[in-house]
Amino acid sequence: MCRSSQTAQRLWSQKRGSASDSRNKWIFKFCVKSERGAGEINPVKQLSGQTSRISEVRERESGRAVSMDGHGGKDAELKLFVEQCKSNPSILHNPSLAFFKTYLQSLGARIPPETPKSDKGDEDILDSQEYLDAKKPDLSTDDKSDDIVESDVELDDTDVVLPDYDPPQKMGDTSIEVTEENMDAAQISKSKAVNSISEGKLHEAIDHLTEAIMLNPSSAILYATRGDSYIFVIILLICLGCPYIPPSPWKLTLLISANVYVKLTKPNAAIRDADAALQINPDSAKGYKIRGMARAMLGQWEAAARDLHVASKLDYDEEIGQVEPNAHKIDEHRRKYERLRKERELRKIEREWQRRRAEAQAKYESEKKMGQPSESKASEPEAASSLNDGQVIGICSAVELEKKLNAASSSSCLAVLYFTATWCGPCRFIAPLFTSLAGKYPKVVFLKVDIDEARDAAARWNISSVPTFFFIKNGKEIDKVVGADKSSLEKKIAQHAG
Q1: Are 282 and 328 in the same domain?
Q2: Is 456 in contact with 352 (CB distance < 8 Å)?
Q3: This protein's superkingdom (predicted)?
Q4: Which of 98, 158, 289, 487 has its CA at 20 to 30 Å from residue 23's CA atom?
Q5: pLDDT one-digit tens code per residue, 95-131
Q6: Residues 201, 80: one domain?
């Protein structure tokens, strides 16, 4: 043990022996031996930081020691040292503080183990990993920012009514044979229904129409007329200002009990009658019109517009103008969010592309830094033997592409590098020619890279469009063709292969 450590322990023992007053502080004497040129680091001086400097005390030849007597800045220096020990306990393993560490252990203190220092190789690996991590884009934030919150489309729902959930109305049996007597009776019932409608007896009109349908279930016009009665009832309710239905600009005046109109507000019943009419006669303009108007009453604007468009083609009616504005709004709303969703998917694809490109570039630079390219050069003879004469070689990664190009270069062969994509029409157009040219020029190495499969290779070659052809000889790019020009491609290969 050095004299400075012995002096510190002696002073400490004297101080501890005379400490009878609880107000007295236990003061440590830290003596650090620092020989010129020894290269030892003074831990007390190192830990003092920029805020406070602990006085360095050296043992002189006479053995005189300078003690910290607790006055002024000495207490602050001691406090700072204790704080540094708390924040970084590994400093206690410094050889200059061995006496202090031994003392703490004698009191039962447990000293945390010293953190091992990583060697240079580990630092290189750490740096490479940090470089790779830094190259990775933060996709979580982008995904959150790309969340699409679909807003509600503003529609004019002034004439929308509540749906009816009554049991279905009576339907006739279309399989029975209708006699002339039944047809005549059905016509009489229909006439009665028309009279009842004109008199405002709508409930009675529907009963007459139901009777006519039962007599002649094969008449599409009867179903459509009864369905029209349901719609007409709704129109009357709108015009009279029923509390369950908003007012409408249509002007009709009929003095009919509101209770009857509420019971007859049945757009779903009108749709059922329209469906029955269209099953019997698919070209029934009235059937499409009634169903379209009923769907409009329920707020089914797109379906209503489709029905009324068909009705207008069969027999033009101005009713289509009542639903077109809302139908157009819904159609535009749907197209808008379809476009936004497609743009979001494209952004995701672009971010994934950038991420893979960054990873590939980082991996390439990391391998280059770690000296792995030399290994690839060592495997060039093996790669050269894998060059298939007269065939197109598919490439899956940038590493594989580099090996093939190195092998072609070592063999002094011309390499034609073809970047393509499965979704590219011109690529499909020129692909058969590229394959045939590979058979025609067996000494030329034909390489094909799908930019969606080997994104790292496409990124390294800065591919902006497909098809793109590179001509490489002796490791250097000597020519390039962009586009599906068959004659130009064939001329270039013949020119450079000779």
Answers
A1: yes
A2: no
A3: Eukaryota
A4: 98
A5: 888 888 888 877 777 777 776 554 444 444 344 444 4
A6: no
